[in-house]
Design a protein that fits this description.
564 residues, S8 family serine peptidase, hydrolase
Length: 564
């Protein structure tokens, strides 16, 4: 799942058309607290989750039990100051002895497993998107699908959809990439000018505004970058944060431009080396859950459970969690095989909640993922999934994985899909990029300019997306479960949905995601019609008798997280 493509494309075009002027217009904005997702509207005037209020008024003095949350993502900075103390450690594994001590099939999986790993310890960074893989698979299987396939068949309809998605947009994407490459060149030029002038490796809007010079090159670079950074969200990001997002967008655009020219599986075959079309081939990957590409997973993990009250960085939502790192999401679309095995790994190793901040529009082996979801359901594990960032209606546009099984089985009751809401300070109360759906999105959660941990040991930054909203919900679920450990996965889902609340300032109509000014009732964007609310969830949980009172076999075995 790509977080930033829609937003970055818009801000880049704005900057490209209006950048090189010598006048800079600064607009005053209300400063939004960096931890706004934990706050509440009554005291902080933001659409937060009432988490800090819950700690003060409901949880003070109460004891909790530890909860294991698996993060299936791009990897995690296991050395980060705010995360290293809350990582799950496999109790049955002896570090570094090269043996599978616990017999789970994975050697030295101390903090989790990397399903993108190679035998030499390296990892797959970039992979193709699923539509491109399917396009090539059809061509390789049928030669000329247009003449080979029955025009009344389901496969022919799928092939036509793939052609529409790959061939025509491919030529358009090449032109877009060409024009955006020019912008990237300007960004790089301005970066060099400003870093040299400021003698800094990074800079913010505030630092740019302080520049006073008659050097026209510096002034042009300052105004260009100022407009660019102020277009990134409610709170101006630093240049390094923007650059990371922009480079990821350009990489994704390049892959799409080359989709019909470069075979989509060559990186996978060269690096991972598994039989990616064989779900029984499970012994692949390595134990490097950190790697060099863990921005996304590190950010997600901090949202859920960054160590609270430790005097550094940020506070996560939940205060008694161990994060299990399961690396399965590259730059590009995740593979169904990796997702299925990642879910099973997490379940088998004690995860009680699994965060899945990824998704795609095609799932050629949905049955593999479905079986893994059923397995998690049977074992009582809650799955929290990001709704997607296309401003689309999930009731009419496919988004995978999802709780609907291909074999017609009853819908999974352990699966929550999360949309992204804003902080309430701007005109967009709901994130304009967020997917929605009265049937297929369960609730919303803060997902715009969420400040969290990023790779680098002691670094932090903001990011937006339903990928940030999902871990907010996963964190709330873990918090509730840690204080009410007898609740089942389906009870947790019920509690989170039932306790979700309307927009706190009374706003009924919001801008419909994916549109400019079309209005829609916020209540019609999801099943619950509300935003996750920690305070109300805990109140409701206190009234419900847990279904797992007699089922203690899946309880997490670990010491609680030390406070302070």
């Amino acid at each position: 799942m790509k977080l930033f493509s829609r937003e970055v494309a818009v801000l880049a075009c704005v900057a490209l058309t209006a950048a090189f002027t010598t006048k800079s217009s600064a607009q005053s904005k209300t400063q939004v607290p960096k931890n706004w997702q934990l706050l509440n509207y009554e005291t902080d005037s933001v659409y937060g989750t009432n988490t800090e209020k819950a700690y003060k008024e409901i949880l003070k003095g109460k004891k909790s039990t530890p909860v294991i949350v698996a993060v299936i993502d791009s990897g995690i900075d296991t050395l980060h100051e705010d995360l290293k103390g809350i990582l799950w450690t496999n109790p049955g594994e002896i570090p570094g002895n090269g043996k599978d001590d616990d017999g789970n099939g994975y050697i030295d999986d101390i903090h989790g497993w990397n399903f993108l790993g190679a035998k030499d310890g390296s990892s797959l960074k970039e992979d193709s998107d699923e539509a491109t893989r399917e396009y090539y698979r059809y061509k390789n299987k049928y030669g000329n699908p247009d003449s080979t396939l029955d025009k009344n068949s389901k496969e022919y309809a799928t092939w036509q959809a793939l052609k529409q998605k790959i061939e025509k947009p491919g030529s358009q994407t090449k032109l877009q990439y060409k024009s955006m490459a020019k912008l990237q060149e300007n960004v790089n030029k301005c970066e060099n000018i400003l870093k040299t002038y400021l003698n800094k490796e990074d800079f913010t809007v505030g630092q740019l505004d302080s520049i006073q010079t008659t050097n026209q090159d510096v002034l042009l670079a300052r105004n260009f970058m100022t407009r660019l950074l102020k277009s990134t969200g409610d709170e101006p990001a630093s240049f390094s944060e923007f650059k990371m997002e922009f480079d990821a967008y350009m990489g994704d655009l390049k892959r799409k431009a080359e989709a019909t020219e470069i075979p989509p599986n060559q990186n996978r075959e060269k690096i991972v080396g598994d039989k990616y079309e064989d779900i029984t081939d499970t012994k692949y990957g390595n134990n490097d859950v950190m790697g060099k590409f863990g921005f996304h997973g590190t950010h997600v993990s901090g949202i859920i459970a960054a160590a609270r009250n430790n005097g550094v960085g940020i506070d996560g939502v939940a205060d008694n969690v161990r994060i299990m790192a399961v690396k399965a999401v590259p730059d590009g679309d995740e593979r169904d095989k990796d997702v299925a095995l990642a879910i099973r790994y997490a379940v088998d190793n004690g995860a009680q909640i699994i965060n899945m901040s990824f998704g795609k529009p095609y799932s050629p082996h949905k049955e593999w993922v479905d079986e893994a979801v059923k397995y998690a359901q049977k074992k009582g594990v809650l799955l929290v999934h990001a709704a997607g960032n296309d401003g689309a209606n999930n009731d009419s546009v496919p988004n995978y994985p999802n709780p609907d099984f291909a074999d017609g089985s009853p819908r999974a009751d352990n699966f929550i899909t999360v949309g992204a809401s804003g902080n309430g300070q701007g005109p967009d109360k709901v994130a304009g990029f967020s997917n929605y759906g009265k049937k297929n999105v369960d609730l919303f959660a803060p997902g715009v300019q969420i400040y969290s941990t990023i790779p680098g040991g002691n670094k932090y930054g903001s990011a937006s997306g339903t990928s940030m909203a999902a871990p907010v919900v996963a964190g709330v679920a873990a918090l509730v479960l840690s204080y009410y450990p007898d609740l089942s996965a389906r009870q947790l889902k019920y509690i989170l949905e039932k306790s979700a609340t309307p927009l706190p300032d009374g706003t009924k109509e919001v801008n419909k995601p994916g549109t400019q000014d079309e209005k829609i009732n916020f209540a019609d964007l999801s099943v619950s019609g509300g935003v996750v609310n920690t305070y109300e969830a805990l109140k409701l949980a206190a009234t419900i008798k847990g279904e797992n009172v007699k089922k203690k076999q899946h309880k997490a075995k670990m010491k609680p997280v030390k406070k302070n």
